[in-house]
Design goal:
7-stranded mixed beta sheet, 13 helices, two-stranded antiparallel sheet, 19% strand, 387 residues, alpha/beta, single chain
């Protein structure tokens, strides 16, 4: 109990609050991160660091906790952008909306409440002034600080494709409040079920690469529908939910072909990821996601450290989605490590001789490891349940 008494004196929270913070798995990732950010901000202010150092740490902490992460998804019609979004992120969630029905004679008397459900995150986003106000050019999903931009499919005709290219170009040119590019990562999804990837190569070469110029590390190439990539047979093990050796060899060959083609066209070196977002067939058979953890792992590591928290706040928490992957690496552990490693961003450059209380975050101040560990423990438990 002496430990918790010390925590109460240092942190300024009640002992009960501290004890509750130790309970692993309480709340969501976002709720725990919000609590943790509040505690860290207070502790930075109370720390023995210099005023300049406090300002720098607070600046980094607030950017870490509040910065939006914007991901644009691009691909040909039918490549599976929407299914990928639904598999990876919590856009399918609904929220309950309550409407009060009042007495016509007395507006202050509520006679009934009608409860309905509506999509929680999706909204139609208009980009630029040229877009027809009745045209749903881009769907925007906002989950906390994560913003997903689902661009319209390409390949439905020259005229409409040109319009879509203009919309994508305008979005790539948008800047955030600090004057930096709004889009942090462009996820180009290729259709693994077809050999004709000309439309995708064209949007890469004509729009995305020229607009990003020297910042092409913001491009990630992913090959969806890996389970139906071969026309000579399915070669998919439904029981294990994975490709057989024949399909693996075919997919690896296709990935190398994509790498070579993009290198020849644009001199851009990429490392495509093949995966299956999952779906239900007309027969009722369910193909579960495959290599989704690998795709998420690549997304995490394609982003700056301070941008990764938003990804984890918005992920789909269905653990079944991340169960089946190739065995090249332990992607689930890699995802968690990438998330935890991002905390180093806060204390980067801080005086290592300053008083260090929380070894997990490594920032100066009176942070007692048990408190920080309590909140981190909650997030650990949540992620362990998912991955």
């Amino acid at each position: 109990m002496a430990l918790f008494t010390d925590l109460f004196k240092n942190i300024g929270d009640s002992i009960d609050d501290v004890l509750r913070a130790q309970e692993a798995g309480e709340g969501t990732i976002k709720e725990n991160m919000d609590d943790l950010c509040d505690i860290l901000e207070e502790e930075i202010l109370r720390s023995k660091a210099s005023e300049d150092e406090k300002k720098e740490l607070l600046k980094r902490l607030r950017k870490f906790c509040n910065t939006e992460t914007n991901i644009m998804l691009v691909g040909a019609t039918g490549c599976g952008k929407s299914s990928t979004i639904n598999a990876l992120f919590a856009v399918g969630e609904e929220e309950e909306e309550t409407t009060e029905v009042v007495n016509d004679g007395d507006d202050d008397v509520v006679v009934a409440e009608v409860k309905t459900k509506k999509p929680k995150y999706v909204e139609v986003a208009k980009v630029g002034s040229k877009a027809d106000p009745e045209t749903k050019d881009i769907e925007k999903y906002k989950i906390g600080n994560l913003v997903l931009w689902d661009t319209p499919g390409l390949g439905d005709g020259t005229e409409i494709d040109e319009h879509h290219k203009e919309v994508i170009t305008e979005l790539l040119r948008e800047e955030d409040d600090d004057g930096n590019a709004l889009i942090d990562l462009v996820l180009v999804i290729l259709d693994g079920s077809t050999r004709d990837l000309g439309t995708s190569y064209k949007i890469l070469n004509d729009v995305i690469i020229p607009e990003l110029k020297d910042d092409t590390n913001r491009i990630l190439i992913a090959l969806n529908q890996a389970d139906i990539a071969m026309k000579t047979g399915r070669h998919w093990d439904y029981e294990k939910n994975e490709p057989d050796e024949t399909l693996i060899a075919f997919l690896n060959e296709k990935v190398e072909s994509i790498k070579t083609r993009i290198k020849e066209d644009s001199n851009l070196e990429v490392e495509p990821v093949y995966y299956c977002a999952g779906y239900e067939e007309e027969s009722g058979d369910v193909v579960h996601p495959y290599n989704l953890s690998k795709l998420l792992y690549y997304i995490m590591n394609s982003l700056p450290a301070e941008k990764r928290v938003a990804i984890m706040e918005g992920i789909n928490t269905d653990s079944d989605n991340y169960e089946h992957n190739d065995e090249d690496e332990d992607y689930n552990e890699g995802i968690k490590d990438s998330f935890y490693d991002s905390f180093d961003y806060i204390g980067d450059g801080a005086d290592k001789g300053a008083e260090i209380g929380g070894t997990i975050l490594g920032i100066p101040g009176a942070i007692v490891g048990a408190v920080v560990g309590g909140f981190i423990g909650c997030v650990h438990s949540i992620l362990d349940d998912i991955f």
